[in-house]
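Researcher: Please predict.
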Amino acid sequence: MSEHLHPDPHSLPSHSQLFKATGVSLIVATILLVSVVLPAEYGIDPTGIGTTLGLTAMGRPPSANSEPVAPVVAKPDDAVVKRAVPFRTDTMTLTLGPGRGAEIKASMKAGDDFVFTWKTDGGAVNFDMHGEQPQAGNDFTSFWKGRQQTNGHGSFVAPFAGSHGWYWGNRGAQPVTVTVTTAGFYEKLYEP
């Protein structure tokens, strides 16, 4: 004797719920067919979305005159960036008394670059990473400012020739020591 188990009719979706779910599925499938599949597979784009997304190029057969698309690779002449100055690394330390400030700068030509890290011995400082062009007087360009920081890290490419570096200001009541390390292509690192 076999028993057949029947699901509880109250836990099954109603006919109207099934029709709605089927209708939504058909609409979504039609949208995907027209906007993605036809442009990508056959180059047919009735909505224009495939062209916008770059899918129609995938569906076109290559012409007899077209060359295969090669990956983007640097040309041998562009693979090396030659520098007028040698690679160098420098580390400098300065101590800021309460209410005092000081700078460390790098002499750079436009396009020279370095990576950098600076940190304090625990005290927080305000800083302004900036640059000055030769004969600019008191004019300078700020690149990055911060308040009450204990470190900073990054890379820098000189947008113009001149001196580029940091000003640190100690607004606290105790002396703060700042150590900066740079590595890259620049003429020298110095304390003005």
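Model: The longest strand covers residues 87-96.
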